[in-house]
Amino acid sequence: MPVVYLLHGAGGDHKAWLGKAPNIEAYADLYNVIIVCPDGHKTSWYFDSPIESNMQYETYISKELITGGVDSNYNTIADKNHRAITGYSMGGHGALYLAFRHHDVWGVAASVSGGLDIRGFPLQWEIAKRLGVYADSPETWEQNTVINMTHLLDGENLKFMFDCGVDDFFYDANVRLHKKLLERRIPHDYIERPGGAHTNQYWANSITYQMVFFNDFFNSTKK
After folding, report:
1. Full domain range(s) for residue 189
2. Which of 22, 67, 86, 112 has its CA 20 to 30 A from that of 192?
3. Separate counts of helices (H) and strands (E) for the chain
4. Quick check: 19 and 26 in contact, CB under 8 A?
5. pLDDT for 165-220, tens place per residue?
6. Looking at the whole model, is its pTM more than 0.70?
7. Burial, 68: exposed, middle or buried (Cβ in 10 Å; 0-12, 13-18, 19+)?
8. What Pfam families does the entry give (predicted)?
9. Starting at the edge strand that comes first in sequence, how are the strands of the sheet with 34-36 ordered?
10. What is the CATH number of the domain that holds 149?
């Protein structure tokens, strides 16, 4: 079966998605997929922290969880064409961060209300604990913000979308990434909705469309 990985936001845990979008359980049956909701620590930002040896969440999610956990213990189709990743807020950053850096692992990805440019928030959500204080480590922040990772994309090896409401405090970063991708002619799907703020209601609505997006991708790769 295909697998969809759902990453939670800051302050959340592995139970967060069920609380915000209870319908995901029904989506697993509807689309015949396995849904995995990993615990990414409350504020890991899904980095391999250069300063905290016990905060290696890029390695955990993209390698250890998949090969040592999910694919070893469940009836998965263990290749990128049957593996998706998305998340909300911090998890939206994490999903595109991991997919951009590991498009050998995920064939399709998405983000909803994602923090796609962390540089505007140097004092929030403990990002500085993971990467170092921005003033002391600006290069590390520049290298680890999603909006600066478009050079990793060739337009062919990853299908992805991202979605943000116009009233969300991450809206500006999402628009800037969209424009950057257009300039570089990198295919992607982008959605913005009027009135959408950083809310459970918005995320529950978005995951409905993202599951269709993932299902279409999985069906397109069937032999």
Report:
1. 3-220
2. 22
3. 10, 6
4. no
5. 999 999 999 999 999 999 999 999 999 998 778 888 999 999 999 999 999 999 99
6. yes
7. exposed
8. Esterase (PF00756)
9. 34-36, 3-7, 83-87, 108-112, 159-165, 189-193
10. 3.40.50.1820
